[in-house]
Structures are given as C-alpha cells and as structure tokens.
C-alpha cells in the first residue's frame, strides 16, 4: 500500500512539461486573469467570481476517454468537500451540445463552463493535453497543474489536494 501511495503522489507531483506553453499560459505561482466563462449547465461567470475560496478547475472534453473516466471522482469530490473548495469544469468541446449530452448522461452536477475559439481559458490554464486539473488558492493563484486522469476522491488524491491548498480535510 505504501508503494502504491508513493506512486500516486509521484504521479500527481508537478513535472515541468517538455513541451511548448500554450499562448498566454499562466505559470504555477501566478494569478489567473479574470476571463469570462460561458455557462454550460448554469449561468455564465467570470474567473474572479470564484475568488475567496480555493478552486479546482478540470479541463476536459466529451470525446476524451480519460476525461470521462475521472468525471465521477471529481463530482464525488465536489459533493464531499464543497464547503472547503469549489470544483468547476471547463469543456473544450467544439460543440456545446456534445458536452451537455455527456453531462446529462453522467449526472455530473458541479458547475461547468465551455471554452470557445480562440480558447482563452484553455490557453491560460495550459491545457494542451487533456484532462488537466488545476489547483488554485483563494486569491486566484495557480498552485498546481496535474495532467492525466486521476481518481480525485481517493484518499491519496485528497491528501495531495489538502497539502497543496493548505487545507485540513
């Protein structure tokens, strides 16, 4: 079990990507810009509407198998720890109806938004690979970026989130 935990933590550890940044990407340690977000399963908002409480942003697409696979764990995470932080999703789907259809079928309930050309949110977050999950402090500063699918409501993932966001969960 300790070996599994060590492997999960290593997997969740930030790794400097060996690829070019997206245009306008915000680095870890920097604050997000206040961009508008078009509502997918609720009202539209701005990034700043989520300040004051830690935020977890998941960037996904309905055609992305790993994105679909981790969505249930993100939904459970949001339901269980919604008082300590907010979980939102940003779809990069070209067709909003595809994203809405997936959300209805999966029963995902946390707030979802959709990015649109020229993909300002996707670029700001650095989502040149999906899924991407970004941990942000209450002031809007990026604390961590995690590529690939994870079981976000697992004990090890929750411990990592608590450590990065400096929370007691």
From TrEMBL:
It comes from the Bacteria. PANTHER family: THIOL:DISULFIDE INTERCHANGE PROTEIN DSBE (PTHR42852). Residues 26-166 form the Thioredoxin domain. CDD domains: TlpA_like_family. InterPro entries: Redoxin, Thioredoxin-like_sf, Thioredoxin_CS, Thioredoxin_domain, Thioredoxin_ResA/DsbE_sf. This is TlpA family protein disulfide reductase. It is found in: Cell envelope. SUPFAM superfamilies: Thioredoxin-like. Residues 1-20 form the signal peptide. Transmembrane segments: none annotated.
